[in-house]
Amino acid sequence: METLNRFLTETQDVREYKRALAVKLALKGYTYPEIHALLQVSEAFISKWKRMFHTNGVAGLRLGYRGYGGYLTSEERRQIIVWIQEQTTWSTAALQAYIRDTFAVEFQSLQSYYTLFDAAGVSWKKAQPRNPKKNRPSWQRRNRKLLTM
Predict the structure, then answer these.
(1) Using one digit for the tens of pLDDT, what is the confidence trace for 63-79?
(2) pLDDT tens, 21-65?
């Protein structure tokens, strides 16, 4: 029970916490319907994680898949942002070349490069020189209904 309590205080994942809490309540003598009412989990959920805890201990309650690490570390990302801010002109192609040559990373989506531009405070969007809806001729403003029909 002590290892289970320690796990409950240390875990950062809500799913792991819910598993451990269901097991703890079951071990304390709560019935499955009571645990179901408290945690909104099925009785099969309680049974499965209780069995996993008895078989593997606290390690059985942990998530199996943790995802992949990002392509860039936070330090590498910071270096890229500094590099972007030092440039006088910006282009996605130049950023791609810099990241590929320096860090041996190439993103599949352009959105990753746009996110780096955004983090550096650079806008990659083109602005229109004027608002197309502003200063319409007066006959267009008066006859707006006619134009939309």
Answers:
(1) 887 666 678 888 999 99
(2) 999 999 999 999 999 999 999 999 999 999 999 999 999 999 887
Residue with token string 């070349």: 97
Q: Are 71 and 105 in contact (CB under 8 A)?
A: yes
In the chain, where are the structural domains located? Answer: 2-61, 74-119
Specify whether the CB–CB gap between 36 and 43 falls below 8 A.
Answer: yes
The dotted CATH code for 2-61 is 1.10.10
Q: What share of the chain is helix, strand, coil (3-state, %, to 5)?
A: 65, 0, 35
pTM over 0.90: no
For 108, 112, 124, the CA distances from 115, given in Å and listed in that order, are: 13, 5, 10
> Which of the two residues, 9 and 66, has the higher pLDDT score?
9
> 4 near 49, Cβ under 8 Å?
no
| Backbone φ and ψ of 18, nearest 5° | -65, -40
* d(C-alpha 82, C-alpha 77), whole Å: 9
Of 99, 92, 111, 37, nearest to 72 (Cα)? Answer: 99
3 state DSSP class of 30: coil
* CB 119 within 8 Å of CB 101: no
